[in-house]
Design goal:
The complex is a heterotrimer of chains A (304), B (315) and C (388). With 315 residues, chain B is an all-alpha fold. Chain B has one domain: ABC transporter involved in vitamin B12 uptake, BtuC. Chain B has 13 helices and 4 strands. In chain B, a hairpin with a 2-residue loop joins strand 2 and strand 3. Chain C has 2 domains: 205 residues, 3-Layer(aba) Sandwich (Rossmann fold); 150 residues, Response regulator (Rossmann fold), CATH 3.40.50.2300. In chain C, the strands form 2 sheets. In chain C, strands 7, 8, 9, 10, 11, 12, 13 and 14 form an 8-stranded mixed sheet that branches. The radius of gyration of chain C is 22 Å and the shape is globular. The mean pLDDT of chain C is 90. The chains are: A mainly alpha (304), B mainly alpha (315), C alpha/beta (388). The interface between A and B is large, with 47 and 51 residues.
């Protein structure tokens, strides 16, 4: 029983932390720049493909990860300078349309370059098995993912809460006009945040690649989850993104693990097996609706 | 602003167009192109769906990214009706509209408490919720979708022939467009447009802003449900992919290509996009790249056509 | 003059109906993109290989094969089939991988009186009450491979089994097929989301149940991820993995590699089967595509051979539906799986074999045939079929 609870908790944590990598960049872009970026998931997908390609070329997962993340950050820079910079001042409709177009383009481009079938990315051989501590088993690679996620979360906390740049970022999220009036180079700040967000996307894509599959369309499903996270957490808040990610990760994992069993104890077997998976798959949306009902601005609204 | 105004000016044109449309199946049959009758029905159905989104987006100023959910729910409602022996269109279609409208009421009541980016993302998330619900509901076929047993009937007549069905769709679209045109001219239409232009002022004047917006949202949802029910009858399948958010994106693209807030915007957009798809897809499987680049060009270099409306509401 | 020409033309057209067509069109719709693409690509490649062997002809008629991707989506499949039937006016159809898509498009195909030769999808509906003269399955009925695994797990005396399948009709078929022959305790039936890629929550649950065997049916990318994560979680030490051949064929092995070793699965065909047809097929396939064929490829190959034999049988008179049906039922071709025959519901009666994954003589990880589980096995639904 301890094994089960501990293992599920770690699973929830792992899922939540990876969501956080995606949500962190997204929430800042939304919060500071007031810009809807549907193509955030595409950066995640492209990042995963670049990591896979680099890992194959270098025959090393870690070199591949570093190269892929750097390349995606560079792509983010190019996108920001050529496209997004023009979108910030535009209305939401243009932003949605332009980034939806980006999704179409990047999905097809990936299909053209890497084909329609999923690309394989394998974890380093040393991490392909389980780690055993006193009879407790957990996949070694997932532990590494958790460690990476925690490290990034810690780093982000230090950056945002303690550094000068972080202060500007928070100021930008809370009141953009005032920040500009104080003479801070918001343009440069935007570029920095966007590139950082792109790098985090690629990191998540590269780390999850070996666990999941590197395939066209992988960005869209995860994008919606990242949206749910930042709606729950409050747009523009890193703290909100972290809390939201962990809530979503845990609720989703526990829902899948416990709901079928719970329902079976209370309902007839047939109804339980019909209702269980359905309920588990919409649990986080129900949670979101519940939170919105009481706190329409999310748990940690960046703007008072 | 001159949105929804053009209705009267185009009356003469519309009548001529309707004549051509009524004769279309016969013309296509004469040319030996029966396949395209179904294709034409598809265009009309998407025109209706896009017009319903245009009502919510262009007219009501509510940027919903979950509109496909109402579309898909209409399709499922029709499939379930037909399965349980309800086949008369005069029952099936209103029921589908009612179910879709009811869901729109739920989503709207929760989402309309928020504004801006929040509203966009929340409608998106609720749309995905409906999608996942349908996908995992085994009683409704789960991921397979729900196949229809035959097509609905109209006053005892079967709509099995593609031509007959096309005419039924044409009638639905015509009536809906008439209704939308009238709605824009009526008091409700004027109030909702005024709310779009200046919400605070309307609130100060004592208008129940929330209720007006919610009503508009629900009407849009119900019309999308009607389109969904028709599509299910056309293809013989209520598929979960109709509810997916990318479908909302496609409807949005149609509205924008056609013209946000113009009565015939959705209609034009559906026509252009579906024809473009038919032609381009014949050339290359990678036609999405072309479409994406086209959209980017529209956004970057023809911003007035795209965003005239929203630029106003945001300032 | 013109009158005479018209009369001549009319006479020619009538003659064409009664006589042989001068070419034949085949519509192949399959899953060629997304996580299920590996299966569809193999069917397509198997079919194309056979067409190459037949010099691009079916029964001496020049053949045009139109290939389309259904994206594993029922409504895309419907649109393609609609186009095949009404616009391209194909004579024969094949290719669909997934049963849910087959069930979605079946009615329009049958209504159009077009013969469909299934190279994979074998839904129970079309084997039983909804069996149709225009539907032939050259592969198996969905339950068959699961039944074979159930029988083997039962015979080997496993007592505590967990079943994992996606939450969709094909998954339910798998469970009922497996349980038709396995009578021991089922500790848990785990239903996952179709297309799910992360199985961490399910694996933790499975660990807590301590099963001695695990039967899973997760086609395509789902199976690849499941096996990888199962091994990574260290579950392979105490639990023996079983799967139908779908989840343990070359497409999955290529992706997972060594962790697959020691896994048992069932199939009606294996690349190491000793018959002339099969040896030629496997050698040609490796030469053409530089990889080992999977069971899907063998099914695509057989589908083409079956079409060829039947078209030759009716001497190209494709309009004579009754004769074509008889010719298809007669099965006058040599299958790569050895001999089999069609049951009254147009599904095969054939042998099912046990395969185990290990290293072959060249050091490749691949399937090896271990023995026969069922001989001349029919499906469980044939008695419900009243073929018209």
């Amino acid at each position: 029983m301890t094994q089960l609870i501990l293992e599920q908790a770690l699973n929830g944590l792992q899922f939540g932390l990876m969501l956080f990598l995606l949500a962190a960049g997204l929430t800042l872009v939304f919060g500071i720049m007031d810009c809807i970026n549907l193509a955030h998931g595409s950066l995640y997908m492209i990042g995963a493909y670049l990591v896979a390609a680099a890992a194959q070329a270098a025959d090393s997962f870690w070199i591949g990860l570093a190269t892929g993340v750097a390349a995606t950050a560079l792509l983010g820079l190019v996108l920001e300078l050529t496209l997004f910079r023009q979108l910030y001042k535009r209305d939401h409709l243009s932003q949605v349309l332009a980034t939806f177009a980006l999704i179409l383009i990047s999905n097809e481009a990936v299909r053209l370059i890497w084909g329609a079938q999923p690309v394989m990315l394998n974890p380093p051989a040393a991490l392909s098995g389980p780690l055993e501590v006193g009879g407790f088993f957990y996949p070694a690679y997932r532990l590494v993912i958790i460690a990476c996620g925690l490290a990034v979360a810690g780093l982000l906390y230090l950056l945002v809460a303690k550094s000068r740049i972080g202060m500007w970022v928070r100021a930008g999220a809370a009141n953009r006009e005032m920040t500009e009036a104080l003479g801070i180079n918001v343009q440069g700040l935007f570029t920095l945040v966007f590139v950082f967000g792109a790098a985090l996307c690629a990191l998540a894509g590269g780390l999850l690649g070996p666990l999941l599959a590197v395939q066209v369309g992988m960005g869209e499903s995860v994008l919606i989850l990242a949206f749910v996270v930042i709606i729950i957490g409050g747009i523009g808040s890193i703290r909100g993104a972290l809390v939201g990610s962990l809530i979503v990760g845990t609720v989703d994992t526990l829902g899948r693990a416990l709901l079928p069993t719970l329902l079976r104890a209370t309902l007839p077997a047939d109804a339980a097996s019909t209702l269980g998976p359905a309920l588990a798959s919409i649990l986080i949306y129900l949670l979101m609706a519940g939170i919105l009902f009481f706190k329409p601005q999310g748990l940690f609204p960046a703007r008072a | 602003m001159a949105f929804y105004h053009s209705a009267r000016h185009r009356e003469a044109l519309s009548i001529g167009l309707i004549g051509v449309m009524i004769a279309l199946p016969a013309l296509l049959t004469a040319c030996g192109q029966e396949f395209y009758i179904g294709f034409a029905s598809r265009i009309l159905i998407f025109a209706l769906a896009a017009s319903s989104l245009n009502l919510v987006l262009g007219f009501g100023g509510m940027f919903s990214l979950g509109h496909a959910a109402f579309f898909g729910i209409g399709a499922y409602a029709a499939a379930i009706c037909l399965r349980s022996g309800i086949t008369d269109a005069l029952l099936v279609l209103p029921l589908a509209m009612a179910v879709a409208g009811l869901f729109a009421l739920l989503v709207g009541a929760l989402s309309l408490r928020t504004r801006g980016v929040y509203f966009i993302m929340i409608t998106l998330a609720f749309g995905q919720m409906a999608y996942y619900l349908v996908v995992s509901a085994r009683a409704w076929g789960g991921d397979d979708g729900l196949a229809l047993v035959g097509r609905m009937t109209f006053a005892g007549f079967g709509l099995h022939g593609e031509a007959a069905f096309f005419h039924a769709v044409l009638a639905c679209l015509g009536l809906s467009m008439l209704f939308l045109g009238r709605l824009a001219e009526a008091r409700f239409g004027r109030v909702i447009q005024a709310i779009r232009e200046n919400e605070t002022r309307m609130e100060a004047l004592g208008f129940p802003v929330f209720h007006y917006r919610l009503s508009c949202f629900v009407i849009g949802g119900a019309l999308a449900g009607l389109a969904g029910a028709l599509l299910a009858n056309l293809t013989g399948l209520a598929s979960p992919s109709l509810l997916q958010w990318t479908q909302s994106g496609t409807l949005l693209v149609m509205v924008i290509i056609g013209g946000v807030g113009y009565l015939y915007g959705g209609l034009l957009g559906a026509l252009v996009l579906l024809c473009l798809e038919e032609v381009l897809a014949g050339f290359t499987v990678h036609w999405h790249i072309g479409l994406g680049l086209l959209l980017l060009t529209i956004v970057l270099y023809a911003p007035k056509g795209v965003a005239a409306l929203f630029a106003k509401t945001h300032d | 003059m013109s009158l005479r020409l018209t009369a001549l033309a009319a006479a020619l057209m009538l003659a064409a109906l009664a006589h042989a067509a001068d070419k034949i069109k085949v519509g192949l719709v399959s899953t060629l993109s997304g996580p299920g693409a590996g299966l569809g690509v193999d069917i397509r490649d198997g079919f194309t290989l056979a067409m190459k062997r037949l010099d691009g002809k079916l029964g001496d008629l020049p053949a045009e094969v139109i290939i389309a991707d259904d994206q594993q989506s029922p409504d895309v499949a419907k649109q393609i089939v609609d186009k095949f039937l009404k616009k391209d006016k194909v004579d024969l159809m094949t290719g669909i991988v997934f049963s849910n898509l087959m069930l979605a498009v079946g009615p329009s195909i049958f209504e159009n009186r077009t013969f469909y030769i299934s190279a994979n999808a074998g839904p129970s509906q079309y084997a039983g009450e909804q069996c149709n003269p225009y539907f032939f399955n050259v592969a198996w009925q969905n339950d068959n491979l699961h039944e074979a695994v159930g029988k083997y797990v039962q015979d080997k005396g496993f007592k505590n089994v967990v079943i994992v399948t996606p939450n969709y009709p094909g998954g339910k078929d798998a469970v009922s097929g497996f349980k038709r022959y396995y009578k021991g305790k089922v500790a848990e039936e785990v239903y996952t989301k179709l297309g799910q890629l992360d199985y961490a929550a399910e694996l933790a649950q499975i660990r807590s149940l301590k099963p001695d065997a695990l039967f899973f049916f997760l086609p395509g990318g789902m199976g690849i991820n499941f096996v990888k994560q199962f091994v990574a979680a260290g579950l392979s030490r105490d639990t023996q993995l079983f799967a139908p051949g779908f989840s343990a064929d070359e497409d999955v092995i290529k992706a997972v590699g060594a962790p697959m070793m020691g896994m048992f699965n069932s199939s009606h065909w294996a690349h190491d089967m000793e018959n002339v047809e099969n040896k030629r097929f496997v050698a040609d396939f490796e030469k053409e595509y530089a990889r080992l064929p999977s069971l899907y490829a063998s099914q695509g190959y057989d589908a083409a051979l079956m079409m060829d034999a039947a078209v030759r049988d009716v001497k190209g008179k494709l309009a004579d539906k009754a004769a074509l049906q008889k010719a298809l039922e007669a099965k006058r071709f040599k299958s790569v799986r050895g001999d089999f025959k069609f049951n009254t519901n147009h599904y095969p009666v054939q042998n099912y074999y046990l395969r185990a994954i290990g290293k072959d003589a060249q050091g490749r990880v691949t399937n090896k045939t271990m023995g026969t589980i069922f001989t001349n096995h029919a499906d469980a639904y044939v008695s419900q079929c009243k073929m018209k």
